[in-house]
C-alpha cells in the first residue's frame, strides 16, 4: 500500500460519520464530485472498497469500519494535540468522559466521581455501556476511563491499563427485625434469597459458602444488575447478597440492614485507562482522592 494520504482520510472520516455524500459536501464546502474523487483515491490507495450504497445512504464495508475506527483515533488525537498546543496541558474548561459498566452499582460510581462534582470549569460525561462497547470507545479515545467490576487483561495489540480500585465486602442485606445472627450459619437456610446470576463471581462464591453449610438456598429472584438487585431487595421480604454500598441510602434511613459480612467474598471494582500521549490529569486526581477516602474508611 502506498503512503496514506491524511487529507483523503479526513474526507472519508466526515463522510463515514454523516453517511451521505451530498450533506457532507455541503458541510465541508466542497463539490460532491470533488469529495467523491477524494474517497475514490483513498479506496485506490488502500486497495479496497470502503462504502457500499443502500438507497441514498452510504454503508461502511468491513474494511471501511476498520478504517473509520483508526480515523476516529487519529483525528481525536489531533484534536487533543491542538487543544494542548493552543491552551497548554490545562485547558480552561476540562471534560472528563467516564464509561461505566451498565450492571454495576451507581452508588459506587457516585462516590468515585464525588470529588469533581460541582467543580468549576469541569464537565463530567458519564455513559453506561456493556464491557466490549466500553473498551472499544476507550480504544478510540472517546472515553478517558472505564469503571467496571470485570477485570480487563491487555494484549500485545491493546494498550489497556487495568487497576484494582476497591475491594468491597459482600453482605447479606434484608429488612430490619429478622432474627439472624452476625455469623453466617445454617439458620440462613430458612430464608428466601435474591441473588446475582449464576455466572457472576459473587454468586459462585456464595454458592460455595452454602455448600459448606450444606444447604440449598431458596431463590426467589435473580438479577445481574445491581440497581435491579437493590429494587428487588427493597420491595421483597427476602435476603440479598451484594456490597452494602449498593444500598447505603436504604441502610442509612433504616429501611434495610446488613445482617452479616460474608467471609472472604468481595466485589472488585477496576479502573481501566488506555495509554495516551497526554494523560488527563483529572483521572489522576480522582484515583488519588478515592484512595485517600478508602484509606480513611478502613
Task: Provide a quick synopsis of the model.
This protein has helices spanning 6-18, 21-28, 32-46, 62-87, 106-113, 131-139, 201-212, 226-235, 248-252, 281-297, and strands at residues 51-54, 57-60, 94-101, 122-129, 145-148, 160-174, 192-196, 218-223, 239-243, 257-274. With 298 residues, it is of the alpha/beta class.
From the helix content, strand content and strand pairing, which structural class follows?
alpha/beta
Q: Strand count, sense and closure of the main sheet?
A: 8 strands, mixed
Q: Treating each run of at least 4 consecutive H or I residues as one helix, how many helices?
A: 10
Q: Give average pLDDT, whole number.
A: 85
CATH topology of the largest domain: D-Maltodextrin-Binding Protein, domain 2
Helix content: 40-55%
What share of the residues does DSSP label as strand, in percent?
A: 25-35%
Q: Order the strands across the largest sheet as they lie in space.
A: 4-3-5-10-6-9-7-8
Low-confidence runs of at least 5 consecutive residues? none
Radius of gyration: 25 Å
CATH class identity of the largest domain = Alpha Beta
Amino acid at each position: 500500500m502506498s503512503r496514506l494520504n491524511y487529507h483523503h482520510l479526513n474526507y472519508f472520516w466526515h463522510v463515514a460519520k454523516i453517511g451521505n455524500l451530498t450533506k457532507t459536501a455541503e458541510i465541508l464546502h466542497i463539490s460532491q464530485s470533488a469529495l467523491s474523487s477524494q474517497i475514490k483515491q483513498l479506496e485506490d490507495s488502500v486497495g479496497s472498497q470502503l462504502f457500499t450504497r443502500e438507497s441514498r445512504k452510504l454503508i461502511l464495508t468491513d474494511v471501511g469500519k476498520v478504517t473509520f475506527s483508526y480515523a476516529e483515533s487519529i483525528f481525536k488525537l489531533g484534536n487533543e494535540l491542538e487543544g494542548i498546543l493552543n491552551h497548554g496541558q490545562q485547558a480552561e474548561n476540562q471534560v472528563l468522559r467516564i464509561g461505566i459498566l451498565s450492571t454495576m452499582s451507581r452508588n459506587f460510581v457516585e462516590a468515585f466521581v464525588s470529588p469533581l462534582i460541582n467543580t468549576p470549569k469541569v464537565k463530567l460525561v458519564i455513559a453506561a455501556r456493556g464491557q466490549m462497547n466500553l473498551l472499544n470507545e476507550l480504544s478510540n479515545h472517546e472515553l478517558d476511563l472505564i469503571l467496571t467490576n470485570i477485570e480487563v487483561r491487555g494484549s500485545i495489540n491493546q494498550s489497556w491499563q487495568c487497576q484494582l480500585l476497591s475491594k468491597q465486602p459482600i453482605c447479606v442485606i434484608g429488612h430490619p427485625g429478622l432474627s439472624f445472627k452476625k455469623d453466617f450459619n445454617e439458620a440462613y437456610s430458612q430464608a428466601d434469597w435474591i441473588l446475582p446470576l449464576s455466572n457472576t463471581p459473587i454468586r459462585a462464591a456464595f454458592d460455595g459458602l452454602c455448600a459448606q453449610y450444606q444447604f440449598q438456598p431458596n431463590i426467589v429472584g435473580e438479577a445481574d444488575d445491581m440497581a435491579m438487585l437493590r429494587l428487588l431487595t427493597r420491595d421483597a421480604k427476602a435476603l440479598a447478597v451484594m456490597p452494602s454500598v449498593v444500598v447505603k441510602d436504604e441502610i442509612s434511613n433504616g429501611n434495610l440492614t446488613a445482617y452479616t459480612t460474608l467471609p472472604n467474598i468481595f466485589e472488585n471494582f477496576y479502573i481501566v485507562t488506555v495509554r495516551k500521549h497526554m494523560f488527563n490529569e483529572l483521572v489522576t486526581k480522582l484515583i488519588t482522592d478515592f484512595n485517600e477516602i478508602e484509606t480513611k474508611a478502613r
